[in-house]
């Protein structure tokens, strides 16, 4: 008996459309990869949301036994994770990124440690240099996976540097008690030691189609890393720079970091406004409260305003609610949950 095939259409944000066939009941992402569709993915298990899209036509459901990070309300609204979904009819999906984004396939590279610099009570700046002959394309905001030497475990971090800075790459990494990468960086790492990286991954990245619109960046802790990469990429671009607001915060003043880097960017970018926040012990021009509480009514002056959020999930939820109330369109809010890795 012939296998029943369903026709799947992918509508990308840049207007490009791709189609492929999926056997009834088969995994959509695996079929898309086999058909060389330029889709984003990473975990393949429903946990990271890299392959999120919106079902606009047809019937697609979560595969039996699969788990998904989607909320029930998100599922009801048509959102699907391709890696845990199957089609029960011909389907059309809308993707929130351009067709050129997913064409940059993840790859493995090697890099030498240049330095490990303690920049706050619990944060280090890791500077790497790619090995000769190796290269990595990535978009500001995406993340890499780094293998912890001798342990073989993977940890995910977004570069604070940009594509222009290659072969140098910088990462801002939070040190956690007993953490595998934390212990390595604090006690073992040496200059010229070789690390293995793979990437890029993730659907959190600077959207080229919004580069002229006002930008709001909300960062908590080392969620600042991808935000710095985005700000620098906008600065490096040609033409008029958009209005930008960076609201960045940590729990207490001694946990703050990269303040000189932020100040330098304010000097380079007259269109950049910054607010530095602490939950406790605020003084010396620091905003008392979270980066979300620093957002004001007059921060959203255009219906085209775009927002990028990176930090703990409660911060992202609060920022999304606040920005939506201030008039930012939900489809113009992009977020990356920062999960501290042990």
TrEMBL record:
Please name the InterPro entries in this protein's record.
2Fe-2S_ferredoxin-like_sf, 2Fe-2S_ferredoxin-type, 2Fe2S_fd_BS, Beta-grasp_dom_sf, Cbr1-like_FAD-bd_dom, FAD-bd_FR_type, Flavoprot_Pyr_Nucl_cyt_Rdtase, FNR_nucleotide-bd
Instruction: List residues of the 2Fe-2S ferredoxin-type domain.
Output: 6-99
User: Which intervals hold domain FAD-binding FR-type?
Assistant: 106-207
Cofactor(s) the protein needs:
[2Fe-2S] cluster
Q: Which UniProt keywords apply?
A: Iron, Iron-sulfur, Metal-binding, Monooxygenase, Oxidoreductase
Q: Which Pfam families match?
A: FAD_binding_6, Fer2, NAD_binding_1
Q: Does the keyword Phosphoprotein apply?
A: no
Which SUPFAM superfamilies does the record match to this protein?
2Fe-2S ferredoxin-like, Ferredoxin reductase-like, C-terminal NADP-linked domain, Riboflavin synthase domain-like
**MF-aspect GO terms:** 2 iron, 2 sulfur cluster binding; monooxygenase activity
- UniProt-listed PANTHER family: NADH OXIDOREDUCTASE HCR, PROTEIN RFBI
Protein name, entry field: Methane monooxygenase
The protein's organism comes out as Stutzerimonas stutzeri
């Amino acid at each position: 008996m012939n296998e029943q095939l369903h026709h799947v259409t992918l509508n990308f944000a840049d207007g490009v459309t791709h189609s492929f066939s999926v056997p009834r009941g088969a995994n959509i992402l695996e079929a898309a990869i086999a058909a060389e569709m330029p889709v984003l993915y990473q975990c393949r298990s429903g946990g990271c949301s890299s392959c999120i899209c919106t079902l606009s036509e047809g019937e697609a459901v979560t595969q039996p036994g699969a788990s998904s990070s989607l909320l029930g309300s998100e599922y009801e609204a048509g959102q699907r994770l391709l890696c845990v979904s199957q089609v029960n009819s011909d389907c059309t999906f809308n993707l929130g990124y351009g067709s050129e984004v997913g064409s940059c396939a993840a790859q493995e590279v090697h890099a030498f440690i240049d330095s490990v610099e303690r920049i706050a009570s619990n944060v280090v700046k890791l500077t790497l240099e790619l090995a000769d002959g190796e290269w990595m394309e990535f978009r500001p905001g995406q993340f890499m996976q780094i293998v912890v030497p001798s342990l073989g475990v993977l940890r995910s971090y977004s570069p604070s540097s940009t594509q222009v800075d290659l072969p140098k790459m910088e990462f801002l990494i939070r040190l956690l008690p007993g953490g595998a990468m934390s212990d390595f960086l604090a006690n073992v790492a040496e200059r010229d030691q070789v690390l293995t990286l793979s990437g890029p991954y993730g659907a959190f990245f600077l959207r080229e189609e919004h580069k002229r619109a006002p930008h709001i960046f909300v960062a908590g802790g080392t969620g600042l890393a991808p935000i710095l990469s985005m700000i620098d990429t906008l600065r490096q671009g040609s033409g008029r720079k958009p209005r930008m607001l960076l609201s960045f915060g940590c729990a207490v003043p001694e946990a703050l970091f990269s303040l000189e880097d932020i100040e330098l960017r304010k000097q380079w970018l007259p269109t950049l406004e910054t607010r530095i926040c602490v939950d406790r012990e605020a003084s010396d021009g620091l905003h008392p409260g979270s980066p979300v509480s620093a957002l004001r009514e007059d921060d959203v002056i255009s219906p085209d305003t775009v927002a990028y959020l990176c930090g703990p999930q409660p911060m992202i939820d609060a920022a999304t609610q606040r920005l939506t109330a201030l008039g930012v369109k939900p489809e113009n809010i992009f977020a990356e949950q920062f999960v501290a890795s042990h």
